[in-house]
Amino acid sequence: MHTLEKKSTKNTWAKALAQPAKEFSPTQLQILSGKIPEGLRGTLYRNGVAQLERGGIGVGHWFDGDGAILGVHFTDAGVTGVYRYVQTDGYKEEAAAGKLLYGNYGMTAPGPFWNKWLKPIKNSANTSVLALPDKLLALWEGDNPHALDLQTLHTLGKDDLGALNNGLPYSAHPKVDPKSGSIFNFGISPGLNGVLNIYKSDSTGQVLQKTSFELDGFPLIHDFVLAGQYLVFFLPPLRLNALPVLSGFSCYGDSFEWKPQLGTQFLVFDRETLSLVSRGETEPWYQWHFGNGYVDDSGLVIVDVARYEDFQTNQYLREVATGETHTPAVSTLWRVQLDPKAGQVQAIQEIMDRHCEFPIVPPQDQGYRTRHTYLTVHRQGVDNRKEIFGAIARFDHKTDTLTIADCGENRYPSEPIYAPNPQNPEQGWIITVVYDGNSDRSEVWVFDADKLDEEPLCRLGLPSVIPHSFHGTWKGA
Questions:
Q1: What architecture is the 2-476 domain classified under in CATH?
Q2: Count of H-run helices and E-run strands, the chain
């Protein structure tokens, strides 16, 4: 935690985080340019940290702030937006007290030392979303998700999905199989050795099957891979020094140790039985996010990953919360070829050498071969230690070419979200929320997914600034 000082204005992107975000009730959005594409009907949902301080005291890490959800509803009558904090118990208690009360990923509980034992880690509900037929889930790594109303974003409360008793964690990157509608996810229970819990759910989110697997130590796993009939987990050589955390004297974010000598371990599970197929080890790296996975014609699992050399990214993300970044932390797109039955990596190669993050594929291609990966990248020529991503792009795996949508100076897009065209499965739109630091406002931009280097098809104005967010999803009408 840190006492807030007046934030420097030299990093324009930091203005979006300088004040707690303001909620707004359902509001008709003004079209600033272009027109809404015919056939674009459904809702964009985004989740991210909306508040980084209380009572003049800042949180310890970007991951610690309270989550808020943006919903943008595209209907025949126009487009409306709504933005609401997730009303977690911790949020409500701290709002009433006017100060921070809980520990989190990057901070121990403030106040008297006994708070470190009496106060649990706060579920911030700030990382991602999963849109189900009758509710929206606000996801966070370490606990049950919170359910929200799909239209109003009113918080309904924690949801155990029928099987996540005693606060079993439900992570931020569920995978939805586009053919069956089955949903796969995981969560890691803490301890000296972490326990990997794997869940298989039906299309309504109800958990039908679950298993648990004891890990080697306590690694940090944020994402995993659905690849055909397999679920693949990569365990970076990062291990928690658990005793200081479990005793309350240190936070998670300060207690992970980089141990490259361990290599990157991987676990391959059968998606139907959730049983272990193989395990193995390869060279060390760290990742937050995977682009996609699939099984090729020879039976190999192909995985695309935004790969870092080490865990410097954690310090960079800690600095984001202060409004000034200095730490270099570069990830590029790599491809891993893995024999799932033998538990052996056959090849690893960098396929795009430009700093990138938040790789996504069209939802209809999740777990299957795809031609395109969409991601965020830096604008040409910026200092990536001081700037955040200012462009989105599409990487074509067939031609090895990158098509870039440069949002312009002092404009910062969120993770690109793909909205399929229900009339034409070969076509879709990319939707991103852009913070414009020139005017200190947030907008929704819609691009033709095949023409990212052209002007957006439409730009919509939002009533208040939406801080830089983590993850989102599209739910078709």
A1: 7 Propeller (2.130)
A2: 4, 36
